[in-house]
C-alpha cells in the first residue's frame, strides 16, 4: 500500500522500532513528524529518510516526561500541517529488574511518566489535529507486559505499571472515540528482533514459527490495520510467544 496522503506522528523515533517505523512509513510516501528525547536523535532519523529521497520528514525534540515539551511538540507540528492521520505512541522508557528495591525513585517516576502520562498527554495534545482527518488512527505500542497476569518479562514492576496504564487508557479511548471515527489500535508484542531497516538483514531475518517476532512483522500489522475500510475497527493485536 502507498501512504502518499498520510501525515504520521511517531514518538521515540530516534532509534529502534520508532526509527524503523518512521523510515518505513516515509518510504511508502507518508509525511512523518518524528520526535525523540533529544533533537539530535530525531534529526538522525530524519536525515536517513531525506538521504533516501523517499517521503518527507520533520524532526522535533519531545521529552515524554515533560508536559510542556509535549505541548510544544504538538504546537510545532500544527505549524506544518492542519491535520494528522496517524499518531503512533511508541515512546516508553524500559526499566529492567525483578527487584522492586533495586532502582531509584527517580527511575520509577521517569518510567511511569514516559509510558503512562506521556501516552495520555501526547494523545490529548494531538487529538485536535486527528479530528481534522478523514481517516484518523491512534496506534499504541504496548507490550505483553500490559496484559493481565503476564509474568514472563524480567522488566521492573514500574514498567509493568506503565504498560498496564497504557492498556487501560487505550481500552476506554477506543470506545469513546469511535463515534468520532477515530480508531484506537494497540499492539501487545513480546520481545522482538529489531533489525535496522536500512540493513540487508531487514528482509532476510528468519521468520519461521520457532523464531522471535520481527519489527517488520509488527509494522506489517500496523499497515494492515490503517489500510482497512473505515468500518473496520481493529482494537488490538496479540502475539503468541515462541517457546
From TrEMBL:
UniProt KW Membrane keyword: yes
Keyword annotations of the record: Membrane, Oxidoreductase, Transmembrane, Transmembrane helix
Record InterPro entries: NAD(P)-bd_dom_sf, SDR_fam
Pfam families, alphabetized: adh_short (PF00106)
CDD domains found in the cross-reference section: SDR_c
Gene3D superfamilies tied to this protein: NAD(P)-binding Rossmann-like Domain
SUPFAM superfamilies xref list: NAD(P)-binding Rossmann-fold domains
Residues passing through the membrane, by range: 20-40
Entry similarity comment: Belongs to the short-chain dehydrogenases/reductases (SDR) family.
PANTHER family, A to Z: PKSB, RETINOL DEHYDROGENASE 10
This protein's name: SDR family NAD(P)-dependent oxidoreductase
Provenance organism: Nonomuraea maheshkhaliensis
Amino acid at each position: 500500500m502507498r501512504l502518499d496522503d498520510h501525515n504520521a506522528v511517531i514518538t521515540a523515533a530516534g532509534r529502534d522500532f520508532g526509527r524503523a517505523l518512521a523510515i518505513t512509513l516515509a518510504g511508502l510516501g507518508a509525511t512523518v513528524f518524528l520526535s525523540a528525547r533529544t533533537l539530535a536523535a530525531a534529526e538522525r532519523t530524519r536525515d536517513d529518510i531525506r538521504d533516501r529521497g523517499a517521503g518527507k520528514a520533520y524532526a522535533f525534540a519531545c521529552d515524554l516526561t515533560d508536559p510542556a515539551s509535549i505541548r510544544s511538540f504538538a504546537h510545532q507540528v500544527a505549524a506544518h500541517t492542519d491535520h494528522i492521520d496517524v499518531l503512533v505512541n511508541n515512546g516508553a522508557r524500559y526499566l529492567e529488574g525483578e527487584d522492586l528495591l533495586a532502582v531509584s525513585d527517580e527511575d520509577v517516576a521517569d518510567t511511569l511518566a514516559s509510558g503512562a502520562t506521556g501516552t495520555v498527554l501526547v494523545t490529548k495534545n494531538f487529538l485536535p489535529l486527528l479530528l481534522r482527518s478523514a481517516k484518523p488512527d491512534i496506534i499504541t505500542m504496548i507490550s505483553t507486559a500490559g496484559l493481565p497476569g503476564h509474568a514472563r518479562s524480567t522488566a521492573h514492576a514500574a514498567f509493568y505499571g506503565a504498560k498496564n496504564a497504557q492498556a487501560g487508557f487505550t481500552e476506554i479511548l477506543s470506545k469513546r472515540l469511535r463515534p468520532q471515527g477515530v480508531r484506537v489500535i494497540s499492539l501487545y508484542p513480546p520481545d522482538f528482533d529489531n533489525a535496522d531497516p536500512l540493513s540487508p538483514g531487514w528482509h532476510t531475518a528468519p521468520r519461521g514459527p520457532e523464531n522471535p517476532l520481527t519489527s517488520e512483522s509488527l509494522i506489517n500489522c500496523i499497515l494492515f490495520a490503517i489500510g482497512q475500510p473505515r468500518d473496520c475497527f481493529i482494537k488490538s493485536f496479540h502475539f503468541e510467544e515462541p517457546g
